[in-house]
Amino acid sequence: MPAGLFCERIRHPLGDPTPLHAHAEGQLFWLRDGALIVHEASGRSTFTAGQTGWIPAGMPHWTSGHGRVDGWACRLDTPFAPALPDTACRLEASSLLPALLERLASDEPQGDARNRLVGVLLDEIVAARKVQCRLPYPAEARLRRLADALIATPGDTRTLAQWALFAGVSERSLSRRFPAETGMTFERWRHAARLDLACTRLARGETVQDVAHALGYSTASAFISAFRKAFGIPPGQYGRLTHENQPDISKPE
């Protein structure tokens, strides 16, 4: 494989978190199973089974896995990272991209054959649509404390006025400052955080009913409707997709 590009299998069967670190190269990855959250100081990006993710070089982050995380990753030096942003994002690519990653992670193609596969991979990266999937955190300490509480207790149904009291700011100030810091209204951010958490809970094998209750939805049908609107499939189908190909970790390969 050309210098500056290296592909490998990734597995986190127990969902173990990684310590804070940064890659010297950019990292492209595709998940076959599970969900992976990339945590930054100023936000988090969630990637789920069937999705391709990008982590730029030099970005301090740590990751947490949910479910049996399994897939392939490719480390790319800057010259081999065409048209990729300097923030974490999702790539909407064809099914050829994960197949290329899997093939390149093996030792079978060599020489010119491998170089040709790399060329196709780079073409697929360039053609893929880059989608921001980051949930930004507010920087102001009181608003960050509020955001952390919303993630820790997503089923809490307190109103905007009650959360403003929790944060120690006026309701009007919260309504104005939260969008200024995150680009999202308070309600939109809370909704996005709940759906973000839904993906990781479903990847861990929780039922649709349990997830709906934990996230504060009045009924399971309300949660199903919100999830389908956001992701195009019902949560039950998503849960099956994240588990149907899970590796058997009781036996070595």
TrEMBL record:
**Every HTH araC/xylS-type domain range:** 141-241
The record's section on InterPro entries has:
Homeodomain-like_sf, HTH_AraC, HTH_AraC-typ_CS, RmlC-like_jellyroll, RmlC_Cupin_sf, Tscrpt_reg_AraC-type_HTH
Output the Gene3D superfamilies linked to this UniProt entry. Answer: Homeodomain-like (1.10.10.60), Jelly Rolls (2.60.120.10)
Which Pfam families does the record cross-reference, listed alphabetically? HTH_18 (PF12833)
Q: Name one GO molecular function term.
A: sequence-specific DNA binding
Entry keywords, A to Z: DNA-binding, Repressor, Transcription, Transcription regulation
> What protein name does the entry list?
AraC family transcriptional regulator
